[in-house]
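Why do we care about 3D structure at all? Because function follows from shape, and shape follows, mostly, from sequence. That is the central idea of this module. The next example makes it concrete: a single protein chain, its amino acid sequence, and then its structure expressed as tokens.
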Amino acid sequence: MSSELLAPLDLAFWHLETADHPMHLGALARFDPAPDAPGGPAEILALLAERAAAVPRLRMRVRDVLLPVGGAAWSTDKAFDVRRHVHHLRLTDGADPGDFTARATRLAGELMERPLERGLPPWEMYLLTGEPGGPFAVLVKLHHALADGMRAVAIGAGIFDQIAGARPPGRRRPRPVTPRSWLPGPLNVAGAARGRIEELGRALGVGASVVRASRLDPRGTPALTAGSSGTRRLATVDLDLEEVRRVRRVTGGTANDVLLAVFTGALRHWMLERGEPLPAADPRALVPVSRRRPGGAPGPGPGNTFSAYLLDLPVSDPDPLGRLDAVRRGMDRNKAAGPSRGAGALAVLADQLPPLAHRFGAPLAGGAARMLFDVLVTNVPLPRSTLSLGGHPLRALHPMAPLAQGQALAVAMSPYDGRVHTGLVADGKAVPDVDRLAAAISDELTDLVKITDRSG
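And the structure:
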């Protein structure tokens, strides 16, 4: 049986999960029916199953290993049956049977509440259909131990016609699970010791930054500090990518700076609409950043490879351009420090810890996220080519990030086909009005475009 050790960060995600805090990410893809594409739900379901089964990574499950102590490994599931992972659900008619997207999003929220079965390869796909001949959606759930955002895109893209029809690359040989040598040869001792000292130095630097950035005082809006209920509500919104670029051309910075500022303004308006006072201290966002090599190279190993920045969201500033300037300056400082430094580089710190520390420390550390940040905001790139499934064109793909313990909201954005498809994952009890926040995001971009058009 082929197997490979879980990378340290993957192991941390595996042990962070609880019944009320599932650590899976996902995406809700919506397709429009193509008149010239044959096949109904049964044929689409069979196509999904066939293509998912052809992705080697989706046949892997997690098992414990003897060495290293506390470690775990990915191993091929000998009893793999794709039918246990790919399902079809027909949406029942609601008050507005024509609004397929709204009904699919509500159902996806219920499905995202459910943890993945840990004895199986940790993923699921759901085909969601409505009226015959109408649009349909595919919900993909992947455990965060299996993939980060970029790796999830690479895995999930295997269902699309354009990816499945391409020549598959050569398979990478997995790392065998072998005992570590505690008696290295004399020529390796000096190099190993020097490497460990350097790693320890990096870990101490990040650890000190984490301690300095930790907040012991309660802050933020009540919705973002509410206790977790284990429920999930989803909302989606699509932004015009050209409008984002118009703002960037006038104000400078990056498109991601604009998107972060748009979310900041939406958060401000949403808080005020709720009748809540603005927080005494601006809420803080965790902004993940990939550490994979440029050009799509997977980087070191197949597991999660990312760090993150911490960014104060200036909701207290009533000026949209002032908020954008503050966001841009904050991100510039983060980039100058680099993704492997600072309190946001928790993933880098996790890479330096032994497996036993993750096994026993992750449940205790799970609640610490609340001390560092209030909301996760991530940008997940998608393939630039037009995608389809069985000839049916992909019209929207809304990414969904996991909620850390103590968190009530996570926002993920993906540019595709001239739009920025945004998925909001919220604790259903803490943020039952996440739809209003999604609407505020759209309104904020509209206002920012008008302001920059006048100033430009």
